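To: structure desk
From: M.T.
Subject: fold request, one chain
Message: Could you run this one when you get a chance? Sequence is below, nothing fancy, just the single chain.
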Amino acid sequence: MKRLLLIAFFFEIGFVLIVIPWSAFWDRNYFAQMAPAVGTVITNNFFRGAVSGLGLINIVAGLADLVSLVLARSSERPASIKPTQFVED
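Reply: Done. Structure tokens follow.
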């Protein structure tokens, strides 16, 4: 259960990091208004792309963890019962 929460966290943070740098919320940042030098850096498209890249890395990490979880569960399943062979007397 904890692992599923971690996977959900990876997806959530990943999607936020992909979307937020390109929204108007990013432009109206408190730190950008207080320090103009910070504002010019964080509004740079290369910086926004780098933050979105981190979001993409988070999503890939979440997908990798989800795949490993699914594969681990499928290998834990017991083997199917083979039909018995009847020996004729």
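Reply (cont.): Residues 2-75 form one domain. Let me know if you need anything else for the meeting.
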